[in-house]
Amino acid sequence: MNEDSKTRYSIKHVSELTGVLGVTLRAWERRYGLLKPERNEQGHRLYTPEDVQRIRTIVAWLNQGVAISKVRPLLDAQAQPEDYSEPLPEMHDILSALDAQDEERAQRLLEQTMKAYPHQTLLDQIVTPLEFELAAMPSPQRDLAMALWRLIVIRCCAPLMRKPLPRNAPECRVLALDWQAESLAWWTALGEYLRGTRVHLMPLPQPDAETLSALCAQDRLPLYMVGHQPLREDVLVFIRQLHKGGRQVIPLGALVFWLASRTESVT
C-alpha cells in the first residue's frame, strides 16, 4: 500500500503546511463545500495529502483574483490557475457598505471575508484595492468612510490577537504614524501575530524626531512604520538614520514613497 494513502494530517498541521488558518479551512468546508476531510473517532478532522494539494490549488486561484464563491467549478473542471484582473466582489460589497455608512453590514461582510480568505490573499486582493478606492473618494465622503473602515478593522482584528504567544516568541513593533494609517497598521500587526510574532502596536500620530528617538531607544526590535500623511523633514531624516545604523525598519504606506523621494532629492 502506498504510504501516502495512509497519511493523515490534523487541521493544525494542515494550517502549518499551507498557511491557511483553521477557521478558514472550516469555512471552505461548511460554507463553500470545497473540502471534505475525514473524521476520527473523536470527531476531529483528518486531511489527506490530496486535501493538502487541493488547499494549495484553492490558494493559487484566490491569489489570481478568483472569488472564493467561484472556485469550486474551477476545481471540479481541474482548470489551471490563471490571472483574473477583475476586483473581487467582496471588495465592492464592503466599499458600498462603507460609502453608505452601514456599520453593521460593513463589519459583517469583513468578518465573513476574513474567514473565507487567507490573510495575505485578503490583503492583496481585497484590503489594498479597497483602501485605494477609499482614498480616491471626494471629501468629506472619504473621511467618513475611512473612519468607519478604521473602526471595523480594529473590531475584527483585535479579537484574533488575544491568545498569548510563548515568551520566547520573536517580537516586533508596529507604529501608525497618522490616523489614516491605523487600519494598515492593524493588518500588518495581525499578519505578524499569525506568523507567531509578539506585536507591540502603537498609534503615534505625526511624531517629532525626539519622540520617535525616545521610543526607538527602548529596544532593537524590528520596526514597522506605517504612514499615509506627510511627515516632518526631521522625522524622515531620523528614519533614514535608523536604517543606516542597522535597525530593521520596514516602511509601509505612502511613507515608502516619501523616503524614496527624499533619497533622490539628496542624491
From TrEMBL:
<protein>
    <submittedName>
        <fullName>MerR family transcriptional regulator</fullName>
    </submittedName>
</protein>
<dbReference type="GO" id="GO:0003700">
    <property type="term" value="F:DNA-binding transcription factor activity"/>
</dbReference>
<keyword id="KW-0805">Transcription regulation</keyword>
<dbReference type="InterPro" id="IPR000551">
    <property type="entry name" value="MerR-type_HTH_dom"/>
</dbReference>
<feature type="domain" description="HTH merR-type">
    <location>
        <begin position="8"/>
        <end position="77"/>
    </location>
</feature>
<keyword id="KW-0238">DNA-binding</keyword>
<dbReference type="InterPro" id="IPR009061">
    <property type="entry name" value="DNA-bd_dom_put_sf"/>
</dbReference>
<dbReference type="InterPro" id="IPR047057">
    <property type="entry name" value="MerR_fam"/>
</dbReference>
<keyword id="KW-0804">Transcription</keyword>
<dbReference type="GO" id="GO:0003677">
    <property type="term" value="F:DNA binding"/>
</dbReference>
<dbReference type="Pfam" id="PF13411">
    <property type="entry name" value="MerR_1"/>
</dbReference>
